[in-house]
Amino acid sequence: MVTIHCLGSGLVGSFVIKKLSTLGVKINVIDIEETNYLIENDLIKIYVKDAFLYCQETFDDDDLFINMLPGNLGHSVTKLLVSKGKRIVDLSFSEETPEILHEIALESGARLLWDVGIAPGFSNMLISYASRVGDGIINAEIRVGGNPIETDAEWSYMAPFSPNDVIAEYTRPARIVRDRKICILPALSERHKIMVKQRGEMEAFLTDGLRSLIDTIPANDMMEYTVRWPGHIQRFIDERKTNNLNEKNLMQMWKFDKNRREFTWMEIKVECKNGEEMRWTVYDEGLHGDSSMARTTGLVTFSCIKQWLIDESLINRGVYPPENLSNQVIFNVLQDLRDEGVTIEGPDINL
Q1: Residue 29 — φ and ψ, nearest 5°?
Q2: 224, β-bridge pairs
Q3: What is residue 51's predicted lDDT score, i.e. its pLDDT?
């Protein structure tokens, strides 16, 4: 029987692990700290251990590794696993993206699928689908964010994943496509107000979320915006300008509160070369104690893993982003999200 090695068991990671346990597979959970979200049972074994050291051990060839570690730590583990020829699903969202490991994977026999969350991930799949059926893309825009339902007098925000990764999102220059050229703009630029049907007026600003799409999907213009409550990002800019931005304090103030209601919203707008315009919206407020970001991100990850376990040939030798997945896989991911109660409006995925 295949063993799934889950590296990291935070908010999103623990949700993925609980979903995987419904498949009846053996799961090893590796985290540097005791997990508050999981309990060992006949299927789940928890190891409080450094993931990098753990991955240096010997494993069966058909084992599958799910990298849900934060940022650059995740990339170092992915690099090790690729060199060992393993099967990997990478959700680490590191600044150094794993396509640079493609040649190493071809030599070692590793098979890696990366960035399979809500955005990047599901957003890539929908844009790829639009490009296929629309004879290419003229313009694509992604707007996405996870936020508390109620605002407050402070930041009106809590981080559903590593706060360090959120801060990196706010400071890392944004790569976009404009007039068929890759442009690098300051993060947080091109701020504008938007209307979210379920919540009202919010604010969007550029962040570096396109990642693999820049190289894989030709377009005249393409960009991704992060969505927050009005006032949030202005406070970040003001405190950074006056040198009052303390990352340690931010990590405490942005700590996720599971008792506070929150939601995730995403909009994908695509103008195709055949004249067709496609628009999808995704909305979720969490369910059964699981946060919306854990659900929307983790269900995409879970669906991809589930399909790979069923179809061994889903991922070839090498390193591949989510937009390489077939229309059938994309259809299944969308259906799995809907089956779990995530609201998705927009065109059907035609096979």
Answers
A1: -105, 125
A2: 142
A3: 96
